[in-house]
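Handout, page 2. Input:
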Amino acid sequence: MTANLLVSVVAVALGCFVAVSPYRAAEIWGSQRLATLTPKRRASFIRWYRVFGIVLGLSGLLLALDSITS
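Output:
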């Protein structure tokens, strides 16, 4: 249970960071790819980074709820 809660806290924290600041997260984790994209594709890439952050945060939250309730 403790490991699940630790993983879910990390997932929620990373998900919140990516959802709130997707351009900064993309600079950290996808810097080479981000530098080679055209402006139109860069906007799409950042948008999908934000979606990834939201999904990651929600999955961490669901894992925490599952760990607490079981």
